[in-house]
Design brief:
The complex is a heterotrimer of chains A (680), B (216) and C (435). Chain A has 680 residues and is mainly α. Chain A has 21 helices and 4 strands. In chain A, strand 2 and strand 3 form a beta hairpin. Chain A is globular and about 75 Å long. The two termini of chain A are 28 Å apart. Chain B has a single domain, classed as Cytochrome c oxidase, subunit III, four-helix bundle (Four Helix Bundle (Hemerythrin (Met), subunit A)), CATH 1.20.120.80. Chains in contact: A-B, A-C. Chains A and C meet through helix 3, helix 8, helix 9, helix 10 and helix 11 of A and helix 1, helix 2, helix 3 and strand 9 of C.
């Protein structure tokens, strides 16, 4: 079946030979030739993961610059750097960018890169759909940010409450860009969720049962399920908003009797699972890092898995805690107050299990470990302030103040982003074949964590002092100036920390080149999971041969065993155990032109909806070209036509090669583009 | 990309291996990737319609501020809509017949039933277009009130889903002209069928919510 | 090795900073909007005493987590960077059912207790108690169940007092009958009484928040919030700030609650029931205008009356002066919200422009002509607003436009506004001082 373009191990003895010309005209798929086109048309989950990361870091710089603008504006009372109009756009775009275009894709970067590796698969279930997700996300993100060029960004806050988001109250096109841009990135998330769930559920090698999967894989599986169910809800809310703004419907028009709380419910039914979508990947990352550098297996594996799944489930029953003061009625408030409180239990279980993992270990405080331990302590603060919000009466004082701003930055920055940095330092050698410098890394960590606490710690105080969120200025006599100044100074310390991270990449790389590009080996950290069992950087085909898994931490157990006193003894070196990536007899799916073509159609259609419906025609043309090409392009490298005419009846028909599988692909398209189709 | 490229001979040799190893090789769940993906997509789609139906339920009594009706029942043509609903439901039956024909390797009947299904779907869409036209002529626009906004959006989304389904059906019929619609295409047809049945079931809910439950 | 120990010291320091930060939060300064000090109502105090205990619980949990981390770091870290040849492994403990049970039950128990108290407090804050205030309204005794309709709009608050037998709990504020008293930016309440607020909005969602009296409640257009109450123990001025993002001038949407002794409150009610007081000849001039004549204005007040009726009354009502030219429908054509502050008793309030400027100088007590002039010159200079049509299809504005008033017109209007009611009590002026 063309749709399953999963790689195959060839039989021993089959040697790769030079390419054989088998022209298929326009529908020949591109071949890797080592140029930039490899990246553009790749369907390799590792390249896609890296591109997710690069794109997210690009948006991170934009979102960070917006954050600094906010902090400069608020450093002193009556700040005048930004006009109220621009300030509202800047804080909106800061939030939207950081959530949708930075943390989510960074998590997607790790998930894409690592999920197949950690379960021992050669690729994801649907490689082309994977490429499609990446390009849709990237084009959507760029589209969202081009709002700045067309009269300003969205100015309704990331939560964009109706009816402040209607044309009457926000006449510029910013919110149209917000609605359509998030719609587009939502499609990317949905496609990716289907793909990754299928991969994890279906493509594990022999012996890799669910309860042997690494925690990182587990947490990402939960995240993909959350995305699967959360994205359609926000999609509908965004459709309604778009219809209201562009086509005259009245979903949020209170003059026509609409209920503004509809938006809030839809938004937060998506929005609260979204919080776990942001944080769980980081939990997964540090659940890999902490055991590695503690030289102990993760404590309470089962509880770690179950608590993650429990968070995923409970995350659906707490959305209205964002609406404690919106007047939803005291009984609902009480119910959601309690449900929110109890979601702290599985979260607390995780923190305690990490501590128990550290306890009694042999701790090596590498940069990755520092970031991971940083997550444990910083997230604890964020979690505890979260508990204070779940107390509905206290929340009536705290909500929409800087106390909340402090809270969610401790969760998203202190929890999610620090975890992602931990992942950078941990997996960098696996991804790029060189280590990041540890000394600079520690500077990176300390500046980031000090800056972070100096920035967001004081916001707890500001919030309790009564500083409202989303205000562009404040008066002197409110007593806000001291801590605001401190916070602004802190934000520049963070910026310095991030700058050092970028410097570290280039410095480490140049040092590595100077030293003759030594290979860090398959397993530089003495780690535990399967991705370390292949060469660094990961070869294109991931693994030379299928791995038969016998238990959790398979790779570690191949390196170490126990003596009669139950002491750990080494039974093999990593090099002995790991595969060297030299197998060239693995057939991989060919690159494809069409994911990027199909994805390119979406933003053009979105521009068309905003500015002139005529533009939708070329957009739709691209989309259809992409779909048709997708369906009719040869399912794979024509020379490796191995799977689609298994049951072929008339092998002599040359066209059958091209068309024999279109309907299968059509199915792939259902999943990939039914959403797109619905919109257009 | 790996530079592993094969000679035609290798391919021939490999094809057999591929058959064991791939194609219909068993997955961890025992459900093929395609089918699992379809189930996941449909479960996600449930939430999509869930949000739309919730919106409609919220606004179904908000029918004031227009001069066309006192309540939506005034403009509904229940017998007409019931008929087109019945036609859509019948298409689920023909879909089942199509699948069973394909699984029997009965290509001719498989195509006939698939085309019948698509045709019934088109009749339903035609009915919906007609109903929309009537509503518009009565003066009910997209933005007349929250009821009409919710109504047009909900039924519109469903209509788009049916249309996509029709395209899938036609694609299956005409895309397999050369390769044949044999037993091996059973899963393909089954997946289209899954989607089609889902869309039908959703319509049953929509029909009940919009047309049958009176505004108390 | 050196790195690790210095890192350790720094880590300790960071943690101390964090801890100190949180502790400081517990005893934050005395800002006007502070949620934790200078509280003046029982609701706010109840929340605060709960919060105080809760914060100590969170400090304890955090201290526990940090203590374990530090102790683990102290005991178990490997010094030095070269660990590649380290073949020593600690005991591989990865499960302990007792511990896991504790990990689950202890947090759950703590939360159960917290949850129980939460529900008790929550129900108490949402309970209503009926108390009646006997007021003398326009000569007749009225049993007033203290309710104030709070209406948010971009970017100021309106407060309506209905003394008659009116069900104020209506979904849409537009359907309410005319209120007996309408005021803007400042709500006046009697001390010691539980006041029920019916909070709603005319345009977007706002949030009404007087931190020293109680938490906040959103003002949602087309909806009347569930009852929300405030109570002040003693006379004073309590500050508030809109806390739901509501567009351009969200940060400049402020308000105050003025709590008065019952007698003072009665006096305030009496004053608010009056129209604008005019001298006899000015009244005659006004009546001639109302009758359709065009008499020549002879003094500043008369010129101001003319200007007000011509330029201001398309939005603002000033009772006795513009009743005939002002109409709700006309305002709705001009403004998205369909409302502008009622200026009849402008001088009885201590702030204007959405609560961001003083009507009286808090130090000298003089009428603040400077700011008022500046405002009338061009409101957008003081408070960003959209004093232009909302969009091509919608000519309505969201804020006071620049009316291009001449200096003379401004002088006249300032005089008119200065005479709009009695100057409030000294302590109110002193305590206001919004700049």
């Amino acid at each position: 079946m063309a749709i399953i373009e999963e790689p195959l191990a060839l039989e021993a003895g089959e040697d790769a030979v030079a390419r054989v010309e088998r022209p298929l005209g326009d529908l020949t798929r591109p071949q890797a030739d080592g140029s930039w086109k490899d990246w553009l048309f790749t369907v390799d989950h590792k390249k896609i993961g890296i591109m997710y990361g690069v794109a997210a870091m690009f948006f991170f710089v934009i979102g960070g610059a917006e954050a600094l603008l906010i902090r400069i504006q608020l450093a002193t009372p009556n700040g005048t750097l930004l006009s109220p109009e621009v300030y509202n756009q800047v804080f909106t775009m800061h939030g939207v960018t950081m959530i949708f275009l930075v943390i989510m894709p960074l998590a997607a970067a790790f998930a894409n890169y690592l999920l197949p590796l950690q379960i021992g698969a050669r690729d994801v279930a649907f490689p082309r759909m994977n490429a499609l997700s990446l390009w849709i996300f990237l084009f959507g993100g760029i589209f969202l940010n081009t709002a700045w060029l067309f009269g300003g960004g969205a100015d309704g806050g990331w939560f964009n409450y109706a009816p402040n988001s209607s044309v009457t109250f926000s006449p510029s096109n910013g919110i149209d860009f917000y609605a359509l841009g998030l719609q587009i990135t939502g499609i990317a998330s949905l496609v990716s969720a289907i793909n990754l769930i299928t991969t994890v559920m279906n493509m594990r090698p022999k012996g890799m049962t669910l309860m042997r999967m690494p925690i990182f894989t587990w947490m990402n599986l939960v995240v993909q399920f959350l995305l699967l169910f959360a994205v359609p809800v926000i999609s509908i809310a965004l459709f309604q908003l778009t219809f209201d703004r562009l086509f005259g419907s009245v979903f949020f028009n209170t003059e026509a009797g609409a209920d503004p709380l509809l938006w809030q419910h839809l938004f937060w039914i998506f929005g609260h699972p979204e919080v776990y979508i942001l944080i769980l990947p980081s939990f997964g990352i540090i659940s890999e890092v902490i055991p590695t550098f503690s030289r102990k297996p993760i404590f309470g594996y089962k509880f770690m898995v179950i608590s993650g799944v429990a968070i995923g489930f409970m995350g659906w029953g707490v959305w209205a805690h964002h609406m404690f003061v919106s007047g939803i009625g005291p009984i609902s408030v009480a119910a959601f107050s309690l449900s929110t409180m109890f979601i702290a239990v599985p979260t607390g279980v995780k923190i305690l299990n990490w501590l128990a993992t550290i306890w009694g270990g042999r701790l090596r405080f590498t940069t990755a470990m520092l970031f991971a331990v940083g997550v444990v302590s910083m997230f604890t603060i964020g979690g505890l302030s979260g508990v204070t919000h779940s107390i509905a009466p206290a929340d009536t004082q705290q909500t929409d103040t800087y106390y909340i701003v402090a809270h969610f930055h401790y969760v998203i920055f202190g929890g999610a982003l620090l975890g992602i940095f931990s992942g950078f330092y941990f997996w960098w050698p696996k991804m790029f074949g060189y280590m990041l410098n540890e000394r600079i890394g520690k500077w990176n960590f300390w500046l980031q964590i000090v800056g972070f606490n100096v920035t967001f710690g004081p916001m707890h105080i500001l919030g309790l002092q009564g500083m409202s969120r989303r205000i562009d200025t404040y008066d002197e006599d409110f007593g806000f100036e001291f801590w605001n100044l401190v916070a602004s100074i802190g934000s520049f310390i963070i910026a310095a920390g991030i700058a050092i991270f970028f410097y570290n990449i280039f410095y480490s790389r140049s040092q590595w080149k100077k030293a003759g590009m030594p290979n860090p080996g398959p397993d530089p950290w003495d780690a535990r999971s399967l991705e370390w069992m292949t060469a660094s950087p990961t070869p294109e085909h991931n693994f030379d041969e299928d791995i038969v898994v016998e238990g959790p931490d398979e790779f570690w157990h191949r390196k170490y065993g126990y003596d009669e006193n139950h002491n750990v003894v080494r039974i093999a070196t990593a090099e002995e155990v790991a595969q060297d990536g030299s197998n060239t007899n693995v057939h991989l799916p060919s690159p494809s032109y069409y994911p990027i073509v199909l994805a390119a159609g979406l933003p053009i259609i979105a521009y068309g909806l905003i500015f002139s419906l005529w533009l939708c025609i070329p957009g739709a043309a691209l989309l259809i070209w992409g779909m048709v090409g997708w369906i009719f392009e040869h399912p794979d490298d024509p020379n490796a036509a191995h799977d689609h005419h298994d049951d072929h009846h008339d092998d002599d028909d040359p066209e059958a090669l091209e068309t024999g599988d279109d309907d299968d692909d059509a199915k792939e398209l259902v999943a990939a583009s039914a959403d797109a189709g619905d919109e257009n | 990309m790996s530079d592993a490229v094969l000679t035609p001979d290798d391919v021939a040799g490999h094809d057999v291996a591929a058959h064991d190893d791939h194609g219909h090789h068993e997955t961890n769940t025992g459900i093929s990737n395609n089918k699992l993906a379809m189930w996941l997509f449909l479960s996600s789609d449930c939430l999509l319609f869930g949000a739309l139906i919730s919106t409609f339920l919220l606004y179904r009594t908000n029918i004031s501020d227009n001069t066309v009706w006192e309540e939506p029942a005034d403009v509904f043509d229940i017998p007409f809509t019931s008929l087109s609903s019945f036609i859509l439901l019948m298409s689920s039956l023909t879909m089942v017949l199509a699948l069973s024909a394909v699984n029997r390797d009965d290509q001719r009947n498989g195509r006939i039933w698939l085309l019948t299904t698509a045709f019934l779907g088109m009749v339903f869409i035609g009915g919906q277009v007609y109903e929309f036209t009537v509503f518009r002529e009565e003066g009910l626009g997209f933005g007349t009130n929250t009821w009409t906004s919710a109504f047009f959006t909900l039924t519109g989304f469903h209509g788009v889903h049916v249309s996509v389904g029709i395209l899938l059906l036609l694609g299956t019929v005409f895309g397999t002209r050369k390769s044949g619609l044999g037993k091996e295409k059973g899963e393909t047809v089954e997946l289209v069928g899954l989607y089609w049945h889902f869309v039908d079931i959703v319509w049953v809910i929509i029909f009940t919510v919009i047309y049958l439950i009176p505004i108390g | 090795m050196t790195l690790n120990s210095s890192a350790a010291r720094r880590y300790t320091r960071v943690a101390l900073v964090v801890l100190a930060t949180l502790l400081l939060a517990a005893c934050a300064g005395d800002a006007e909007l502070d949620t934790r000090s200078d509280l003046a109502g029982p609701e706010a105090r109840d929340i605060e005493s709960f919060m105080r205990i809760l914060l100590w619980v969170t400090y304890a949990v955090f201290a526990f987590v940090m203590a374990i981390s530090f102790e683990a770091w102290r005991r178990f870290r490997i010094r030095g960077d070269d660990y590649t040849d380290d073949d020593e492994w600690p005991e591989q403990e990865d499960e302990n059912s007792l511990l896991e049970m504790l990990f689950n039950t202890v947090p759950a128990l703590i939360l159960l207790i917290v949850g129980g108290f939460t529900i008790i407090l929550h129900m108490e804050l949402n309970s209503e108690e009926t108390n009646l205030v006997t007021l003398d309204v326009a000569g007749s005794a009225v049993e007033w169940e203290p309710q104030v309709v709070v209406v948010g709009q971009q970017w100021w608050w309106e407060y309506q007092y209905h003394f008659g037998d009116v069900d104020v709990d209506q979904e849409r504020v537009e359907t309410l009958p005319n209120a007996d008293i309408v005021t803007a930016t400042q709500m006046v309440i009697p001390v010691g009484q539980e006041i029920e607020l019916e909070i709603t909005s005319r345009d977007v969602i706002h949030s009404h928040w007087i931190p020293s009296l109680n938490g906040k409640r959103d003002a949602v257009p087309g909806r009347q919030s569930a009852p929300w109450k405030i109570q002040a123990d003693e006379p004073g001025v309590f500050f508030g700030q809109c806390t739901e993002f509501c567009g351009l001038s969200h940060s400049r949407m402020r308000m105050q609650v003025v709590a008065l002794e019952p007698a003072d409150f009665q006096a305030w009610v009496n004053a608010q029931m009056e129209g604008y007081p005019l001298e006899a000849d000015d009244q005659a001039y006004l009546e001639a205008l109302v009758a359709g004549d065009t008499p020549a204005a002879e003094n500043s007040t008369q010129r101001a009356i003319n200007t007000f009726r011509g330029k201001c009354a398309s939005c603002h009502l000033m009772e006795n002066i513009a009743d005939d030219v002002w109409s709700q429908e006309r305002v709705a054509e001009q403004l998205v919200a369909g409302a502008a502050p009622n200026l009849t008793h402008f001088a009885t309030r201590t702030t204007f422009a959405g609560g961001i400027r003083n009507v009286y100088d808090p130090d000298t007590g003089d009428f603040n002509e400077t700011d008022l002039r500046e405002w009338l010159m061009n409101p957008a200079d003081i408070k960003a607003n959209y004093a232009q049509p909302a969009n091509d299809d919608d000519p309505r504005m969201r804020g006071m436009p620049n009316l291009n008033l001449t200096t003379e017109e401004i002088d006249d209007l300032v005089g008119l506004l200065k005479g709009a009611g009695e100057k409030p009590a000294e302590f109110i002026i002193e305590e206001t001082g919004v700049e």
